[in-house]
């Protein structure tokens, strides 16, 4: 049987939609328009990439300060409310929940994620689909970070998986796909932001 190695954040959860909902919720009093909300979302990701060791509250607060000019003390309070909303309203991607029983008949399903173990396990059980995941790998427990060839090699070895029978599915080209491709593993990009993918510029003609 073939194996799917799935990412979690922004792949099988509905993280981006919840992030936007959270910002709309906490910024009601500030009458922030839709474009401003989108700018804050982009700024959050930009700061997160530049400062991966910052807490999410500090990242969000800094984004609010940079884009909306909210003073830092107030921005931190808003950021805390934002995080609380995200945790309370976290959800999985509807399409994944619907199709995973069928996927489990065709594939062994392994989850490889840098996400929070407790939150992820709770979500999987809430939707009643934890039984379809054969194994979980949490990078923080392993003391490793994506992107990592070593992580994938370990998963292949521990589960007796042939790379020719494996597919890596994720939303991040660098963290999910690059190490898999270098190992000769097939990859699938999951994205709600990409309309088309090309590997040859002739495809634009």
Summarize it.
With 205 residues, this protein is α/β, with parallel strands linked by helices.
| Count of beta strands | 5
Please bin the fraction of helical residues. 40-55%
Derived from helix and strand composition plus strand pairing, the structural class reads alpha/beta
Biggest β-sheet strands, sense, barrel: 5 strands, parallel
Low-confidence stretches: none
Summed up, the helix count is: 9
In words, what does this structure look like?
The chain is an alpha/beta fold and 205 residues long. It is built from nine helices and five strands. α1 packs across α2, α2 packs across α3 and α3 packs across α4. The longest helix has 18 residues. It is globular, with a radius of gyration of 19 Å. The protein starts with a strand and ends in a 16-residue tail after the last strand.
Keywords:
globular, 5 strands, alpha/beta, 12% strand, 205 residues, 5-stranded parallel sheet, 53% helix
């Amino acid at each position: 049987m073939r194996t799917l190695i799935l990412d979690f954040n922004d792949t099988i959860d509905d993280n981006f939609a919840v992030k936007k909902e959270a910002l709309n919720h906490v910024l009601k009093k500030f009458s922030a328009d839709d474009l401003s909300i989108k700018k804050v979302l982009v700024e959050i990701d930009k700061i997160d990439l530049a400062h991966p060791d910052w807490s999410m509250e500090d990242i969000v607060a800094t984004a609010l300060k940079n884009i909306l000019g909210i003073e830092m003390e107030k921005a931190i309070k808003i950021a805390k409310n934002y995080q609380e909303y995200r945790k309370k309203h976290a959800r999985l991607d509807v399409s994944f929940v619907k199709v995973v029983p069928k996927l489990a008949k065709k594939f062994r399903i392994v989850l490889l994620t840098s996400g929070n173990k407790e939150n992820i396990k709770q979500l999987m059980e809430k939707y009643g689909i934890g039984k379809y995941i054969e194994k979980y790998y949490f990078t923080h427990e392993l003391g490793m970070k994506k992107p990592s060839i070593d992580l994938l090699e370990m998963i292949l070895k521990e589960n007796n998986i042939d790379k020719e029978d494996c597919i890596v599915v994720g939303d991040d080209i660098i963290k999910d796909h690059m190490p898999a491709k270098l190992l000769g593993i097939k990859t699938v990009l999951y994205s709600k932001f990409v309309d088309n993918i090309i590997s040859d510029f002739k495809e634009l003609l």
